[in-house]
Write a structure and sequence with these properties.
Elements (H helix, E strand, L loop, with lengths): L12 H16 L6 E7 L3 H13 L4 E7 L1 H10 L10 H12 L3 E6 L11 H23 L5 E5 L3 H7 L5 H15 L7 H22 L3 E6 L2 E7 L6 E2 L2 E2 L5 E2 L8 E3 L1 E11 L4 E3 L2 E3 L3 E5 L2 E6 L4 H8 L8 E6 L5 H4 L7 H4 L5 E5 L14 H6 L8 E5 L6 E5 L5 E6 L2 E2 L1
Parallel strand pairs: 1-2, 1-3, 3-4
Antiparallel strand pairs: 5-6, 5-19, 6-11, 7-10, 8-9, 10-16, 11-14, 12-13, 14-15, 16-17, 17-18, 19-20, 20-21
């Protein structure tokens, strides 16, 4: 029985196998007798099956997968009663939260059509997103607090591929997107696991330098941007593989090119413009321009998706404040590919970026021992959302500002200074 159109012939099976192996061994470092919870679009079933195989080969005790389907999602917007859009599957997320509390690992496969909901009522999209965020928060906290080993990787869903490579036959678009995913994920190498070890070492060097400098703030300047991002008290930079609170070293994002830390929620000033579109929950938001005062966004606009953006900013008090700042050189492999993926997992790794909403507790010195109140006292933000958007390019400079006001070049024209 065919469940979804079969474009497997357009995807290199040997590289897909390597991606599954990297997701389990590098992304998760899945442990013997550990459970695994997977979420994926139904089109990603070929990758899910391979990941499931490698998970059990690594000793997983149980692998549970939850699929999403684009047609089923659209059916809700076309036919569901209005009250549907204030509801979410809280029972499902409560179950996931319990699984994570018991030590299960988490793997998400990205690949949904970024424009799936672009023709739907923005108010309904915003209501559904908010309801989902509220229901998901108990599970999300285990991830944002880095309690468990988790990972996100991607599969070339045909609807996504046709957006990235318009005008091509669908099988050719899938093949090109698959090759781009494999290259960015380093599975086009003879030994991807070794390639990831080398890459992680380089990201750790960048993090160590930034941690040694102990900047009080970062100052971004460029077209449409003059932004000072104060850094949280006792912040710590991370990049690449990190040790979760359960003691497992994992790579949360495949691919990744960033080093990142926590801004101070009350100390962001100035204005900033996005440099790439943001695909959020099926809506494309482009040409974002915002102004911060006292850490809070007080003005916001966008040429596309502005209504959705404004509703996102009203999710809760923390939605208008920053939870992450990340540095990525413009020459990163994903940027150098010249491909606009319309997928934050990839596009954020082509550009320096900031994230609205929830901070990561691991981005503090001794973060594993801090309470939520202590994190808030040091400037960490709390929110139902965590949404990355891109602000870097080859025209953006960044200075590190120390407590005494002295400045150190960090990036010039998008490259490490």
């Amino acid at each position: 029985m065919t469940i979804a159109p079969d474009f497997n012939t357009a995807v290199d099976p040997a590289k897909l196998e390597k991606l599954a192996e990297v997701a389990v061994k590098v992304g998760l470092d899945l442990q013997k007798d550990q459970e695994l919870v997977i979420t994926a679009p139904i089109a990603a079933m070929p990758l899910v099956r391979l990941i499931t195989k490698h998970a059990y080969m690594a000793g997983a005790s149980l692998v549970s997968t939850f699929y999403s389907d684009e047609e089923a999602t659209l059916a809700r917007y076309r036919h569901a009663p209005d009250s549907s859009f204030d509801r979410a599957a809280g029972w499902l997320y409560d179950g996931m939260a319990k699984a994570y509390a018991r030590g299960a690992a988490r793997l998400a496969i990205a690949g949904d059509n970024p424009m799936l909901l672009s023709g739907q009522d923005p108010a309904k999209v915003a209501r559904a997103n908010k309801a989902n965020s509220i229901a998901y928060k108990p599970a999300l906290e285990h991830i944002s607090n880095f309690d468990i080993n988790w990972n996100i990787c991607s599969y070339p869903n045909p609807s996504w591929a046709m957006l990235v490579f318009p005008g091509l036959p669908v099988d050719e678009a899938v093949r090109k997107l698959a090759d781009a995913i494999f290259a960015a994920s380093r599975v086009d190498r003879d030994d991807p696991v070794a390639a990831w070890a080398e890459h992680n070492a380089e990201l750790h060097k960048r993090s160590a330098w930034l941690n040694g400098e102990r900047f009080a703030a970062l100052h971004f300047t460029g077209p449409g941007t003059d932004l000072t991002v104060g850094l949280a008290d006792g912040h710590e930079w991370h990049g690449g593989a990190s040790v979760a609170k359960n003691g497992v070293t994992c790579n949360p994002n495949i691919p990744t090119e960033e080093v990142f830390t926590t801004p101070h929620a009350l100390k962001v000033e100035g204005h900033v413009s996005s440099t790439k579109p943001l695909s959020h929950q099926g809506t494309l938001i482009d040409d974002i321009q915002v102004r911060f005062e006292g850490g809070r966004i007080v003005e916001a606009k966008a040429s596309k998706g502005e209504e959705v953006l404004l509703k996102v900013l009203d999710t809760d008090e923390g939605a208008r404040r920053l939870g992450e700042v990340a540095l990525v050189p413009h020459s990163s492999p994903i940027s150098a590919s010249g491909i606009l993926f319309y997928n934050t997992l990839f596009d954020e790794n082509a550009s320096c970026h900031i994230a609205l909403g929830q901070c990561y507790s691991k981005c503090f010195l001794n973060g594993a021992t801090l309470t939520q109140d202590q994190i808030a006292a040091q400037g960490g933000n709390s929110s139902l959302i965590h949404i990355d958007w891109m602000i870097g390019s080859d025209k953006v400079d960044i200075d590190g500002v120390k407590a005494d006001g002295s400045r150190v070049p960090v990036m010039r024209r998008g490259e490490w200074a």
